[in-house]
Amino acid sequence: MRRNSMRKQQPSQPIPPDTDHSQQTNQSDAASLPTVPAEAHQESAEKRQRGSARAGMAVIAGRTAGALSRRLHIGGGTSIIGVVAQRVYPDIVAHLATELEHGSIMVTGTNGKTTTSSFIAAILRDDGLRVWRNREGSNLVGGVASSLVIRAQPNGHLRRSGAAISILEVDEAALPKLVRAIPPRIVVFTNLFRDQLDRYGEVDSVVNKWKIAIAQLPASTTLILNADDPTITQLGENFPGRIIYYGIDDIQLEAAEPAETDTEKRYQVLDTRTCAHCGAEYEYSARFYSHMGHYYCPSCGKRRPTPDIRISRVEMESFDRIRLQIATGEEAAHEIIVPLPGLYNIYNALAAAAVAHAMKIGWDAVTTGIEQSKPVFGRGERIQVEGRTIRLLLAKNPTGFNEVLRTLFSDNSSRHILFILNDNIADGQDISWIWDVDFERAVHHIETLVVSGTRAFDLALRMQYAGVDEQKIMVVPPTPLKALKTLHTTHSRQQKKLHIRRAKKDNVEYNTQENIKLPEYVYGIKNALDGALQKTPVGETLFIVPTYTALLELHRELEQRGFTSRYWEGRDA
Amino acid sequence: MISDYRSQKLSLTLGHLYPDQLNLYGDRGNILTLQRRCQLRGIELRVVGLGVGDALAPDEYDLLFIGGGQDKEQAPVAQDLHEMKGIGMWAAIEDDMPVLAVCGGFQLLAHYYRPAEGPDMRGLGVFDAWTEHKGSQVPRCIGDIAIRWGDQTLVGFENHGGRTYLGTAQPLGRVIKGHGNNAEDHTEGAIYRNAFGTYLHGSLLPKNPHFADYLLELALQRKYNHAESENVPSFNSVATEHGSTVLELPRTSLPSLLAPLDDTLEWEAHASLLERLGLYTEAASVLRAHIDSFRLV
Lengths: 573, 297
Description:
The structure holds two protein chains of two kinds. By secondary structure, chain A is an alpha/beta fold.
């Protein structure tokens, strides 16, 4: 346990080796890229003079705190570095961010932040830029600050800020605070679904936060908005700067869903039902999933904007190979292969292509960037274990879970499954949403099933109610129920007494074998993993669908067993 | 195995109010639970969705459910509830139809909801209770919750900004751990005749099979034991009193129309939530009472 936590808290990850240096042959291309506005540069120059000394102090303080926390095994992640640095110099983030030659891109939304950022990073890197990102899960203000401070020198300047651009994955609720600190060059909004109602509040309260953030943006910022999500398009109203809409035009995709073959209609959660203007219910000429699609308001006439960059054709070639035709304006379509499973990854790839479009990056970089992308941490990640393949598919909210289920079960093959449901703070403590997930879809396609996590019983119950045979569900709770233990002991003690008394009376030997039948469990994620692997024959694939903290826990376990590298080593920090 | 009541096939109709507008907190789990528990006993349960604009004819239903939704969607629903369904709802409730109202639905069945700013939202006034939102600086009531319901427990999750205060209405239960109606007086929910309001979701019924069965039992007794029955004690007369005698629900005194089910998993989920709240004694008594192998202890 101790060793484990030590490794986890190794916060100052090595400054990434300057691998991009060799790729910098394309200097003229990079130079022609639009950079941050000139006035910002001037302002930053003044600020830099004033703030450098303080920034230097802040950097030293932050990194000292990071080293200390690592040494003393306190705290969880790296955000202590940013938090301390900000305490010393509140403007540290703004100060450092302005040194980035190509500014910052922010990505926010309920689902798809991480994968979209990684696609964007791959494209920009292929285009010769030096890309910086915040680390997995460090998407609050402190985490973003840390990502800059660990790359700063004690003189208060960033290392190698030339040709650099930062891609920041930003928590939905943290956006207003962050845009104040770092005026972004581009902001991408992926989608908005209900998620962790106990933490974020209702969908509407997130929209309000975003509107506050957008009102603070300079007109030089470009907004990249999902045209198929009515809540997202509504954000573009009254924004004076440039907006690029992206959307799927291939309405064949809707028909790809074999929903109507079942007698029951697929249950889908709709998180945006009514028009933001007049309150009437939206109608759809094509609906891809949840409230995403070609919508219009029958009452006031508001409709989906025509996308500036669109997918004209989608072909699902295999489980994780999707062929897309992407087009802008009147131009002929470009073919791009997405090497990841799931409809949602089509949107992620398209959002990244939209960023490239906004930055006038050529199609070559877009094509290679996306096609050669590896799945990021837990999002379709593939791990080889003892002759079996594990695929990790993170699911954090009803729509995300529904889409993962659709990806797994749309081709009617039977799967080996491990679901892990945690209710820690980072997952959201309210797990009511599992009842909104369409588990009924999975029923006839489950080969073997293990459910685990802090709310294993709730999930097992959900699966049972969906119609999965109870005998087929292996439940692996986190710990034994205390009550069960106590009752068990009392019971067996009483039984023993009874038996001994009876045995004496009847003059027979006491039979220790006879005991009550109890539900028998093994406990914890490790055992869940072992159980699921055991049920998966060699050569086959085990699909693991965890919530966020469950993914962290599971990944750590897989790392410790040596099946995969520590997650930041594999990442392009 | 089924207590086949006079060899006729039992059937019930559930009216699900505003399934599209009020579905924020996994309310579907409640419907699925009622469906499954009926199905396992060979009882036919028909679920009819009642949206905005639909009238509510009380004699068509045996059971009503209303869930919670987003604030934005609650206002048009409140208006529709008044205009289209108010009279039918009152008639049904006065005729002892079991009604379960969760979260927003609970607020809509009380007198009014007073937001931090803006006009009051009028409710039906079934429960003599009212709700106030005390502004965004007052924290929401969020978290796992356990309440005492009769001699048993109910568990769930609550997430509400409004604080509900009871007038003469009896609470559904007393808070053991959690916030309840208003985080002040330890009451949770409200009862009027066979209408039950509560803030518990999570979903409520899957982990509380005794409460699910209680609702079904009420509906069946009301439908099938209404006129006849000399040897069957009238359920309704007892039920109308239980408002004042929350702690002695007339659960066991009646010949049940419901066959027992194997609810091991349900009770383990129930007990594990109690243990997460630190209620070990309660968890032990739940297991002892409901899991077969412990009945002997």
